[in-house]
Amino acid sequence: MSDSNWPACFPDLAQSQDPVIQKLLTSAHSVTVPAGEVVFRRGDICENYLLVAKGSVKAVLTSASGREVLLYHVNPGESCVLTTSCLLGGDKYPAEGITETTVNALMLQRKVFDQALGESAQFRQFVFANMGRRFADVIARMEALNFTNIDARLAQTLLRHSKKQVHLAITHQSLADDMGTAREVVSRHLKAFEQQGLIKLGRGEIGILDPNQLNLTAHKA
Q1: Which CATH number fits domain 149-218: 2.40.50.140, 3.40.50.10610, 1.10.10.10, 3.40.50.720?
Q2: pTM score, two decimals?
Q3: pLDDT, tens digit (0-9, with 9 covering 90-100), for 76-89
Q4: What is the C-alpha separation between 52 and 215, in angstroms, rounded?
Q5: Taking phi first (over 0 means left), then psi (-120 to 50 degrees means alpha), and beta for anything else, what does residue 44 get?
Q6: Cβ within 8 Å of residue 168, ≥6 positions away
Q7: Which has the closest alpha carbon to 95: 125, 128, 70?
């Protein structure tokens, strides 16, 4: 294991004096996955526990027509709740995981994961706490999809992707996939934002003109 980012992302594991966790980390492998790769597919059997140290993975459901519905993102310092659930329950993946950027992660084989889970109270606490936080994120997303209006959700999505940058390289379809809605809906509301002076639409990019007003829109019910 040689990834230099992981100790900062997972300090509870890196600083642990538990011999079971120390042995687990010694047997872990560092893996790098390019952007746009499918890391698991619906129906796959889960064989490894992954801890993301760098980059981002999105978990999505894909309809028969090819439309994607985003479930959640897995960012540095996190693990995938579907992976944990499948390992614990022996189930197959119900969705897909796709890397959004180049991803560096720690990979623990299933037998190593199972052994550590049975022998280390600290590792069990780490796994279940991480899983609980991820479930809370999924519930928050479901609440947003069902109870937050489109303008607020779109503003939130633009601000999250922009990360205080003036120009955002993203397509209307990518925003729609992220929000779990249709591209036509996103395009219509983006045009309204442009008419209000909040953004400037370009080919394959969106300019953020008024981040303060966009932030106010994001927090409207």
Answers
A1: 1.10.10.10
A2: 0.70
A3: 999 999 999 999 99
A4: 29
A5: beta
A6: 158, 161, 162, 205, 206, 207, 208
A7: 70
